Amino acid sequence: MDAAKVGLLGLGTVGGGTAAVLLRNADEIQRRLGRSIEITHAAGLGIANQSILDASKVKLTEDAFEVVNDPDVEIVVELIGGYTLAKDLVMKAIENGKHVVTANKALIATHGPEIMQAAMARGVNVAYEAAVAGGIPIIKAVREGLAANRIKWIAGIINGTGNFILTEMRDKGRNFDDVLKEAQALGYAEADPTFDVEGIDAAHKLTILASLAYGIELQFDKCYTEGISKITTEDVNYAGELGYRIKHLGITRKTGHGIELRVHPTLIPEKRLIANVDGVMNAVLVQGDAVGPTLYYGAGAGAEPTASAVVADIIDTVRTIDIDASHKVPLLGFKADDMSDIAIMPIEDVETACYLRMTALDKPGVLAEVSEVFALHNISLEAVLQKEPAEGVAKVHLVLLTQKVIERNINAAIAEVESFSDIEGSVARIRLEHLG
């Protein structure tokens, strides 16, 4: 059987890793597939200087549209990232009847509906395993491995940069800004780290997971997103004293009121397995009604871990290349005419427990006044931590853990507490999940 012909867009970190894995493991891949896979056309800036590909065997170009318009290319692998050019290239590849493999979570999360609709109309496949959690095969797990289940909820550490920062803050007592600079120096964070530390990257990935879990449209614009830049070393330490760790989680849960879709810092019990996922590693916890809890752990980024998922998608695509589209696994896990219109819940309607930290004047009665406000809003307190003031300092930190409460109710209570003259500044709030 002839080799499957692949066109590669981008030879950066992931593109170079993909080429390396395809070349190094060519014999193993052919044993699994019964057919070889060849990169026949590749595009990238300065590609003539790329030594990993043999120019005598691969057409090299700086014009990516040459690749998607090449009649010999069967599968286009988009690894350039971004929104505009990547979308144009993917849509053109689909128009030309080519299958697409991508690691571009931003593209799928924001333009997925249009891309999937075009692919289904043209009868081609769009594979995107590497778009979520790098080398962890979480897309396949949710879409296929857990297909017998009603997914109750998913909670994931799906951005390695944020996890590295929080781990360093906890283990070494460092502050956010200091660790962020190191993450940038190590290449974990970009020069502009906004997507990582403010949760946008995680929100792209969570949007995809929620669609796969519940058969809903991709709705990135409705994902509540909160970053970790306001987390302090005090918060990390107080959480530890109370038996919790702070992780930057993406959480989606199906409730009787709709679907929760939220990314934010979260306290979780330190004994949970996911609480002990440290450094740049990723982990996704999925709760199904039949299987119970399942945890998926591994490298969420990097050249070859991500390439592992990209190449697996290429292999899957080649396996099904001659199968009628109606007999393939649906692109988003559910048949297009059976997608649900269940609403995404606004964050004000979500119910969670909370960690609250405030700075109060060191005087009698302040804690009682604060507690009374929460009682009037029907908010029960689980724990209270009052730190002794430093010598000569007239202010103390009050730390409260609440039981579960509707977000709008806790917002009202916080606003009232912040109006007290004995409370300085704003109240820090971190949501708390037991993940039981």
Describe this protein with a few key phrases.
Alpha-Beta Plaits, eleven-stranded mixed sheet, 14 helices, 26% strand, Rossmann fold, Dihydrodipicolinate Reductase, domain 2
What features would you describe in this structure?
With 436 residues, the chain is an alpha/beta fold. It has three domains: 4-135 and 303-336, NAD(P)-binding Rossmann-like Domain (Rossmann fold), CATH 3.40.50.720; 138-299, Dihydrodipicolinate Reductase, domain 2, CATH 3.30.360; 351-432, ACT domain (Alpha-Beta Plaits), CATH 3.30.70.260. It contains 14 helices and 17 strands. It has helices at residues 13-24, 26-33, 64-68, 84-95, 105-122, 138-145, 160-172, 176-185, 194-197, 200-214, 233-241, 303-319, 366-376, 407-418, and strands spanning 4-9, 37-43, 59-61, 75-78, 99-102, 126-127, 151-157, 224-225, 244-255, 258-269, 281-288, 292-299, 351-361, 381-386, 395-402, 405-406, 423-432. The strands form two sheets. Strands 7, 8, 9, 10, 11, 12, 13, 14, 15, 16 and 17 form an eleven-stranded mixed sheet that branches. The protein has a six-stranded parallel sheet with strand order 3-2-1-4-5-6, with helices on both faces. Helix 5 (105-122) links the parallel strand 5 (99-102) and strand 6. Helix 4 (84-95) runs parallel beside helix 5. The mean pLDDT is 95.
